[in-house]
Structure formats: C-alpha cells, structure tokens
Amino acid sequence: MNHDPAGLVDAEGGRLLAALRHLLAEKDIATPGEIAERIAATERASPRLGAAMVAQAWCDPAFRALMLADGTAAAESLGIAMRGLPPLGVLENTPALHHLVVCTLCSCYPRAVLGYPPFWFKSAAYRARAVRDPLGLLAEFGTQLPAGQRVRVVDSTADYRWMVLPLRPAGTQGWSAERLAALLDAGDLVGTTVPTARERV
Amino acid sequence: MDQDHPRQHHDIGGVPAFMCREVDTEPHALSDFDREVDALRQILGQKRVMSVDELRRCIEAIPEADYHRLSYYERWIRAIADHLLRQGTVTPDELRAALEQGG
C-alpha cells in the first residue's frame, strides 16, 4: 500500500481517533465543537420518530398512503429532517406477509427515523442468517409468526433505506396516536419483532 | 457452493460459516469512542471529504482477519484513516507524528 507503507492504519482505534481528531481540527475540517454538535444532533433521532410515523399511519389513511408511496415525504411532513439522506422506503406488513430488513453487506439502517443501528443489526450472525434462516433468527428475538404468513426479507443498501409498517395490534381500537406509538420499538420497525397491545416504552 | 464467483469477505448474506452463530439480541450502549467516530464520519460526509461509498470501499479493503476482529467503529476509524491517507488529506508523516504525540 503506497499511501500507507508503514501500516499506520493498524494503530489501535482509540489512538487513531485521537490522532485524526488532532489533525482534522488543525486543518479546520472537523473541530471538537463540530463533533460535539453532531453527536447531540444524532442522539435526537431515535425509534420514537419511526414509532410516531407508524402510529400516525395506523390512525390516518391519507398519511398511511403517503408513507407507503414516499417514506421520505411522510417523515418530512412530521418534521423529521431527511435532507441529504438516502430515500426511505416503507414495507407494509399484512396478515399474509411479514417483512424483515437486513443489510447483508454492512449496516445500512433508516437512521433518520430510528437513530443509531442496534448492535445486533450490525452483527455478522444477523447479516448472514436473515436471508437464509429468517424464521430461526426471528425465534431468537422471541418472535413467532402466525402459520401461513410469508416472510419477505429486504436488503438495505447505502442508497436506499427501508423500514417496516407493522400490523396494528388487535385490541387497540380508538387509541390515540401517542398511545399507539408507545407500543412500538426499533425491532418492530425493521421486522425482528411485532408489536402487541402491551406498552414497550 | 451456490455461486460462481468467490465473494468478498464483507458479503456475508447466507454464508454457511455464520449459520450456527446466535444473534446477540441484548442492547449494547455505544461508547464515547463509538459516538465520536460516528460523528466524525458524518462531518466528513457533509464536507465532501469522504463519501459513504469511499468509507465502504475502505471498510471492505480491511483484511479479512482484521475485519472480523475489529469492532464496528474500530473498522470505521481505520477506514477513515485509510481514506484520508489515500486521498492525501492527511500525509503519513502527519499521521505518524500525531500518533506519537498521542493525538
């Protein structure tokens, strides 16, 4: 490797980060203030945003139609910042079809609406098995689908992100969007789990 | 095997070697290191110093044994360093000196 004959990139991660922080601040590419600001902005995204979208879709047919047609536009209509991010596609679960989202190549995840990807989403076991053994994988999340419901596994890419619109749980008629949103967590929104009428948050 | 071409080691969808591995479904809190690397990547993207594809190219260039040994964000910081060196944004001399000074 001509650009790194000494193998500097083999340095331990914490040392590499400290060295790059120093150099990039000096070059005015990334200052400590900018890094702190970006961390704070990233932490504002969380599964609560995706949960609010799903709850809204359960309550409002027009929003549901928009969300299925154009996830990015639906997110933006709720004030979620999507500018400069890859398009968001929304996969509609039905009694006959369940969706499971994976990124086999790495970890592409709808971060704008779900926040940081969970540890398991980035793991080799999840990435490898989702496409070959989805039912075995779901069982490890405590999820058992009804007999006869098909599973469609969707592979995210760096250029297109997916989230799942789960089925509205039975026994939630007349509930407000806020109350419905509390039933949802990140797994429900990528299909490793399915929501029930039991509160999650 | 069910394919004609050998895969690169990051392309692990359906690969038999991982089929018996259980998924660790427990939550893992991110460390300060993880958050800082993540933020740095976003800033480099926004400032067009490194695209997502450039990050991926450098992650995928990590030798297989290191790829599986390193944590997720350890891969990222290594890939970021690799990209900045390849591009000349940072020279090897600068990086060596900064590493010696402890950042």
TrEMBL record, chain A:
It comes from the Bacteria. Residues 17-193 form the Nitrile hydratase alpha/Thiocyanate hydrolase gamma domain. GO terms for molecular function: catalytic activity; transition metal ion binding. Pfam families: NHase_alpha. Keywords: Metal-binding. InterPro entries: CN_Hdrase_a/SCN_Hdrase_g_sf, CN_Hdrtase_a/SCN_Hdrlase_g. This is Nitrile hydratase. It comes from Lichenibacterium ramalinae.
From TrEMBL, chain B:
SUPFAM superfamilies: Electron transport accessory proteins. Pfam families: NHase_beta_N (PF21006). InterPro entries: CN_hydtase_beta-like_N, CN_hydtase_beta_C, Elect_transpt_acc-like_dom_sf. Residues 9-99 form the Nitrile hydratase beta subunit-like N-terminal domain. This is Nitrile hydratase subunit beta. It comes from Lichenibacterium ramalinae.
